[in-house]
Amino acid sequence: MHPPLPQQTQGPPIGGPHPGAAGLPPNTRLMEKQGARVLCIADVRGSLRSLNELAKQANADYIIHTGDFGFYDSSSLDRIADKTLRHVALYSPLLSETQRKIIQATSPPGMTIKQRLQQSNEPFMLSELPLFLEKQYTLDVPVYTVWGACEDVRVLEKFRSAEYKIDKLHIIDESSSRLLDVGGVKLRLLGLGGAVVMHKLFDNGEGKTTIAGGQGTMWTTVLQMGELIDTANRVYDPMETRIFVTHASPARDGLLNQLSITLKADFSISGGLHFRYGSSYNEFSVNPTYDAYRGKLAASKASFNDVWETVKGEVQPAIAQNQIQQTYLDNTLAFVDKMPSSANAGSPFGGPAAGAASSAADEAAFKNQWNFNLADAAFGYLILEIENGRVATEMRAQGFNFSHR
Fold this sequence. Notes:
alpha/beta
């Protein structure tokens, strides 16, 4: 059983940013432009200078990034568990082959991986973030990112409190969205970072605020989901095009899938699967029937309810005196309740069998909400080219090497 999220003794008006939250108000228009190219990439893993290189290569005006950004500073190594460090090292573009071997090798008794790294003669860097914090390097174009599954919660708390700041870097999360007004399209960016892990949804880990994480890993919570719904509702404008940016893929997680519907998202953009090709799909294209789709949602709902029944005796008293957290919890419970409980018949989004009007609305979401899952930044990217009210796409991938055949 996991402890409930920490109490908030004081807070903003319901739905407002957390105390000390950095960034612009949720409905702030950041940019206006006649046309634009938006580069969408995943998993730069601390290689922040590559953002500028990729922007030039793609002739991009903006970047959307889907997590595992490299939110590590010079003190992060001490907080990362050895298991997580091995995973980070496996994919890191910044470590030498010698450093990788040190991390992957079994440590002698009484010696940690970190001690072995300190004995090596090579400088060790998990991320170029400190170089950007010190202004040795700068970002050429605005970057909008969520955090991923492997980041340092302490670093993200420092960004939220504005202790850390990098020009042109915008973290989109449950408490703040961003609006790009480009090419005749108003793009509303809504974001949710971290992994979706059922047994951690009510666990804040080492987080001192409402950002959940610990030992170099990050995950999302029910309160973050509930606050994101609140933020999205407050800034809702039917004239906007909504993009839901996540680290985890809504195609693989029923909760995120239902959340994207609740947010009225037109597109979702996600990463985190480490593919060499990106994918583009809607639910209609990958599910043979509504019932198949309902089955995915129903399984996710059942898993969530199992956890909720286990922890609600602790969670409910803990937040009973905090109206803000109660509202966020209620938002999440409400959208989960709308998920189907079985794969059989009725509306694809739960409830009684749909009439003509609701069936049309369900079918529109089932067919028209489009999802993009990105290849890792080292292997490919997606471009959204926006002009004259139209959102066109280009997808590029390095792909597999078949020369051995």
